[in-house]
Backbone:
C-alpha cells in the first residue's frame, strides 16, 4: 500500500505514535509518505520506503496568522495526486482531519477517490474539541472520515459524549517498539545520578498543566522523607518554570534533576525504579507504557485511559487525581521492599509486552485493507 500519514512532528504522543507506526509499516514493505510542516522528531534515519513532504506556509501582510490548514490541504492534494496514494491516515482532529476531508473533496472533483482514516489521540477531543468554537469542525471531520480509530475505550466514550456523531470508532491501542524500549545496563550513568544508591523516580511529559507536574514534586517530597531517592524530570514546556520554583519551595532542589527534552529517554528509564504520572487526564498513557517496557512500575491517576493500561496492585497503583498523599504512600510501599519492587518491575514488563508494535501494527494493516475493500469512499 501507499500510505499518507499526517501528524504533528513534535514530541507529543500523537506525533510519536504516528511516526512509529509509519516506520513499522515501511519495514513491512509499504510505501509511507509523511506530510507535516517539519520532519517528525523520531524520523531520524533513511529508509527506501519512507518519504517526507514538507508543508510550506507562505506569509503575507494580509494574514496575522499564516493559514496552515489551507497550505496542508493543498499539499495533501498534490501528494495524493502525484504519489498515487491509496489512503490518508491523519492523526489528531484539528487541523489534520479537517484538512484531509477538504483535500478529499477537491480530489473527488478531479475524479480521484481516496479514503481518509482519522485517529483520535486525546486532547483533540478532551481539550481542543470541547471548545465550542471548534466543535462543529471536529464533529464534521469525524462524521466525514471514512473510518475513525481511537487509542482507548475511554477516549471513544468521550468522543460520543462530547460530539454529535454515531460514527463507528475502532479502538486500536498505542504500542511499544521493544527494539528500542527495553531495560539497558547503564550502571555508570545510574551511579552518577544516585551515588548513594538512592531510588530513582522519574516523570516524562511536555510539562503542560494537564500533566500536573506540581503534583509530581509534591509526591516526591513526601516519598523522600521516608526513602532515600532522587527525582528525574524529563521534558520541557510551559509549566517547567513553575516546577523549578516549587522544587525550591519544597526544599528538594538537591534531590531533583531537570533534564529537559531527551532523545534517548529509554536510557533514563532503564536506571529508574518508579514512574509518576498524576495527570488530570490521559487518553492512553504512552509515557507510562514506555516506562513499563523498561521494567519501571507506575503510580498514576485513575483518569482517562490509564486504567486500561495499568493493572492495579500488579504493575503499579492508581489514585484519584490530585490525591498526593495516597500516591506518595503507594510509592513508599513499593520502594521500601526490594522483593516487592522487583515483582512489580517484572509485572510491568509482562504487561507492556501485550502492546508490542509487532502485535498492534498488523491490526492497523487489516483495518486499512478493510476500509479499502469497501470502495464506498
Residues:
Amino acid at each position: 500500500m501507499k500510505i499518507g500519514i499526517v501528524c504533528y512532528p513534535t514530541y507529543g504522543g500523537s506525533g510519536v505514535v504516528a511516526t512509529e507506526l509509519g516506520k513499522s509499516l515501511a519495514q513491512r514493505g509499504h510505501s509511507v509518505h509523511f506530510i507535516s510542516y517539519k520532519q517528525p522528531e523520531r524520523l531520524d534515519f533513511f529508509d527506501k520506503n519512507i518519504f517526507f513532504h514538507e508543508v510550506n506556509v507562505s506569509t503575507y501582510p494580509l494574514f496575522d496568522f499564516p493559514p496552515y490548514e489551507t497550505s496542508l490541504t493543498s499539499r495533501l492534494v498534490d501528494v495524493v495526486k502525484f504519489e498515487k496514494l491509496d489512503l490518508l491516515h491523519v492523526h489528531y482532529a484539528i487541523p489534520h482531519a479537517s484538512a484531509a476531508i477538504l483535500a478529499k473533496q477537491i480530489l473527488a472533483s478531479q475524479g480521484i477517490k481516496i479514503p481518509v482514516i482519522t485517529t483520535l489521540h486525546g486532547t483533540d477531543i478532551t481539550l481542543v474539541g470541547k471548545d465550542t468554537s471548534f466543535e462543529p469542525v471536529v464533529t464534521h471531520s469525524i462524521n466525514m472520515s471514512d473510518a475513525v480509530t481511537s487509542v482507548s475505550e475511554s477516549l471513544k466514550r468521550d468522543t460520543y459524549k462530547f460530539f454529535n456523531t454515531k460514527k463507528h470508532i475502532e479502538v486500536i491501542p498505542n504500542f511499544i517498539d521493544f527494539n528500542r524500549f527495553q531495560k539497558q545496563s547503564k550502571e555508570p550513568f545510574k551511579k552518577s545520578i544516585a551515588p548513594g544508591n538512592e531510588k530513582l523516580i522519574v516523570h516524562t511529559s511536555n510539562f503542560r498543566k494537564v500533566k500536573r507536574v506540581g503534583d509530581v514534586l509534591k509526591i516526591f517530597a513526601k516519598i523522600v522523607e521516608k526513602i532515600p531517592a532522587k527525582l528525574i524530570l524529563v521534558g520541557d514546556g510551559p509549566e517547567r518554570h513553575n516546577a523549578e520554583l516549587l522544587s525550591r519551595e519544597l526544599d528538594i532542589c538537591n534531590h531533583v534533576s531537570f533534564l529537559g527534552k531527551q532523545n534517548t529517554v529509554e536510557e533514563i528509564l532503564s536506571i529508574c525504579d518508579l514512574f509518576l504520572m498524576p495527570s488530570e487526564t490521559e487518553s492512553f498513557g504512552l509515557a507510562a507504557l514506555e516506562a513499563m517496557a523498561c521494567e519501571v512500575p507506575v503510580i498514576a491517576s485513575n483518569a482517562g485511559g490509564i486504567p486500561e493500561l495499568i493493572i492495579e496492585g500488579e504493575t503499579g497503583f492508581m489514585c484519584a487525581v490530585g490525591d498526593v498523599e495516597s500516591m506518595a504512600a503507594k510509592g513508599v510501599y513499593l520502594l521500601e521492599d526490594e522483593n516487592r519492587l522487583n515483582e512489580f518491575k517484572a509485572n510491568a514488563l509482562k504487561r507492556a509486552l501485550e502492546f508490542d508494535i509487532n502485535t498492534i501494527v498488523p491490526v492497523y494493516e487489516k483495518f486499512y485493507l478493510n476500509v479499502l475493500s469497501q470502495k464506498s469512499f
Q: What stands out?
A: The first strand starts at residue 2 and ends at 6. The CA atoms of residues 7 and 91 lie 5 Å apart.
